[in-house]
Amino acid sequence: MILNRVVHIVDSDAGNRRSLARTLRHEGMDSFAYASGDDLLEASGYILPGCVLIIARPPQPDQSDMVRTLLAARAEMAVIVMGAEPTIALAVQALRAGAVDFLDLACPLAKLRVALDYAFDILPEKVAHQRFIGEAIALKSRLTPREQDVLKGIVAGHTNRAIAQALGIGTRTVEMHRSNIMQKLHMDNIAELIRFAVLSGIADPGATDPGANAA
């Protein structure tokens, strides 16, 4: 997957964000500048996937909440935080929130370029993963609530008989639901079913109670 090298810059300092955007354009990147995290989040529904540079400045140098909020909305973005007054604590907070790197705002352009290159290297995989999630969620609507219950039991590794007992239905009914699931999803093996169930949010690999949401 080939993506444009897009950088979204968040910086409350107008002069610096314009300068940084101009520098990145000279480096062959498409750059877009935002005065605040709220401005970026407001546009998050339609902006192109890419790298996000968040400039952390006093009096609110900790941008970890913004990183979490952005990634909750656009999980495929690769976020780099740059600290105007960097500390180890701020770096740890940013990385724990999901940033792929933390840099000193005063770092050389070459170091920023290396960080951006890494972010762009991992971006296609992040974008593809989110696309798979979207496709799985769309497929989920094809399944009835009962079929989703049966699928939870399959993902948990339960036998048809165990699923039937947990859901209070017959074993042959479970077999029918299982066949319907495979046909509706156009899947022919358990590995594909498990991946679909996890991506769509129907179940997780540790699910053990197929009757939890039984009707």
Task: Outline the fold blueprint.
Layout: E1 6-10, H1 14-26, E2 30-34, H2 37-43, E3 51-56, H3 64-73, E4 78-83, H4 88-97, E5 101-104, H5 109-140, H6 145-155, H7 160-167, H8 171-185, H9 190-200
Parallel strand pairs: 1-2, 1-3, 3-4, 4-5
Helix pairs in contact: 3-4, 5-9, 6-7, 6-8, 6-9, 7-8
Structure characterization notes:
The chain is α/β, with parallel strands linked by helices. Helices cover 54% and strands 12% of the residues. The protein contains nine helices and five strands; from the N terminus they run E-H-E-H-E-H-E-H-E-H-H-H-H-H. The protein has a five-stranded parallel β-sheet, sandwiched between helices. Helix 3 (64-73) packs parallel to helix 4. The radius of gyration is 23 Å and the shape is elongated. Residues 207-215 have low confidence and may be disordered.
Concise summary:
With 215 residues, this protein is of the alpha/beta class.
Keywords:
alpha/beta, five-stranded parallel sheet, 9 helices, 5 strands, disordered C terminus
Terminal residue distance: 42 Å
Structural class: alpha/beta
Task: Provide the helix percentage.
Answer: 40-55%
Which percent band covers the strand fraction? Answer: 5-15%
Write down the Rg.
23 Å
Q: Main sheet: which strands, in order across?
A: 2-1-3-4-5
Mean pLDDT: 86
The number of E-state strands comes to: 5
